[in-house]
Amino acid sequence: MKSLFSKMWLWLTLISVNGVSSLVYQHTTFQRHLNPVHDNRTSPFFSSTVSTAQACVIKCHNHPSCESLVYDKVSFQCSLFEGKNIGEKITSSQVYNQVSTKTVHQNIIAHANNLCNGDSPGYFYNESVPVCYKIDTQPRLMDDAVMFCGESGGHLLRIDTEIKQKFVESVNLETTSSIFKYRIDGKKNNTVWTFSNNQPIKRFYWYPGEPADNISSIGLRVGYGGKWDDVQPSVLHGCICEKDIKFN
């Protein structure tokens, strides 16, 4: 019998060389085994006392050569091993975890950019939010805009944080011969506003005087400085897509 759990530890190391910064990302998955192989010729390459099993997992995560660990819940001893075998049979007070996968990206920003636009032309990654987004000026109805964003694995931009709202306020949206509004995620059912993932919208950033027309979807209007406007689902507008990226 074994149980699987994942420990995602964002290890951020800032390296500055001639003004160039790089962030290191490391993701480790551990698998717990109840009856690991033991060999009395095997000894840990590192051993120390730590207060919790999680702290022992973090030590293994931070050691590139660590492939398994034993944590004793009585003595608080944390032992790290370079292989999958351990020196002695584990007792009922000990926990054994084995590294199942370890992923390292030396430059998380470059990796995020690649995940954002590698197979989806037109997307840009803004690391300060962070958000992977695309602004499209092609006029579309609401359903068509949702389908368009979905074709690249995305959805309409979901403004669910203050920092994301500040971001759209800094974006220069352009008027074209056919549009001056850009659709974002949000729909009203009766009196309740929700995102497309069915989560309720808790904070609103309407332009003064909006919503004015009891309309059921949301857009950003050129000249409103990123504040919200209610827009008709059946009227042609541009759209802003967002793609959720995962680092594992």
From TrEMBL:
PROSITE patterns: C_TYPE_LECTIN_2. Residues 1-22 form the signal peptide. InterPro entries: C-type_lectin-like, C-type_lectin-like/link_sf, CTDL_fold, Pan_app. Residues 132-242 form the C-type lectin domain. Keywords: Signal. The keyword Ribonucleoprotein does not apply. Coiled coil: none annotated. This is C-type lectin domain-containing protein.
